[in-house]
Amino acid sequence: MSSRIEQIIEEIEEYVDSCKYQPLSTTKIVVNKEEIEELLRELRLKTPDEIKRYQKIISSKDAILEDAQTKADAIIADAQAKAEELVSQHEVMQKAYAQANETINAANKQAQEILDSATQDANSIRLSAITYTDDMMANIGNVLQNTLDDAGAKYKVFLDALQSCLDVVNQNRQELAPQTAQAAAISNNLYGDEEDDDVLMDELSE
Questions:
Q1: Beta-bridge partner residues of 21
Q2: Coiled-coil regions in this chain (predicted)?
Q3: Angle 88-94-96 (CA atoms, 0-180°, nearest 5)?
Q4: Number of other residues whose CB lies within 10 A of the CB of residue 136
Q5: Contact in structure between 21 and 29 (CB atoms under 8 Å)
């Protein structure tokens, strides 16, 4: 069963795939800011809990080893008890000691095998948890980096559009400058009568 953080990453990937491309672009998409921010907000909230979960898995290594040690100690204690019983019951002490030593050696071997297996299992669990956590963080980092890159690209397009508009306005003002100066000169020479008004209108219309 996948974790919630994996589900959120899948939702982000599905959302990005569902977004429309910007006009004249095959790489840049248009995103809903509120929707992507909501997914990222939930991702930030879930990430600490998910990390704690894998830290708990890693810490279980000690519990596995402790349980294995307890079982090994119990096996050794039982073997020693049987060895003592054999020694006390057999009339031939040499045979009893041999059987006792064989039992103890077998118990020690079994206990060591249990400890080795438990250590290997604990290390495997720890390595898997660390690897998964690193992969998860890498996926989150890729999503965030792609989001930042897309936002930066859209911001640059916006600035370029504003600069283009400003250039057009400045160019138009430069083209109007001679006519503006001419209108100002004519305005300074006005006498206020109808004849001069007609002259002014004729000059302006030329």
A1: 29
A2: 76-121
A3: 40
A4: 18
A5: yes
Hey, what amino acid is at 130? Answer: I
Residue that is written with structure tokens 């948890």 in the block? 129
φ/ψ (deg, to 5) at 75: -65, -45
CB 118 within 8 A of CB 142: no
Spatial distance between the Cα atoms of 89 and 47, rounded to a whole number of angstroms: 64
> Other CB atoms closer than 10 Å to residue 69's CB: what's the count?
14
Break the chain into its structural domains and give their ranges.
4-205
Residues paired with 30 in a beta bridge = 20
Tell me the Cα Rg of the chain. Answer: 42
Distance between CA atoms of residues 66 and 110, nearest Å: 16
Q: What is the pLDDT along the chain (206 residues), one digit of tens a residue?
A: 457 778 888 888 888 888 888 888 888 888 888 888 898 888 888 787 667 676 667 777 677 778 778 888 888 888 888 877 777 777 667 777 788 888 999 989 888 999 898 898 888 888 777 777 677 667 666 666 776 777 677 778 878 888 988 888 888 888 888 887 777 777 777 544 444 555 544 554 55
CB atoms within 10 A of CB 97: 14
Range 148-153, long-range pairs (CB < 8 A, 24+ positions)? 150/28, 150/29, 150/31, 153/28
Cβ atoms within 10 Å of 50's Cβ, excluding its own: 19
Q: pTM score > 0.85 for this model?
A: no
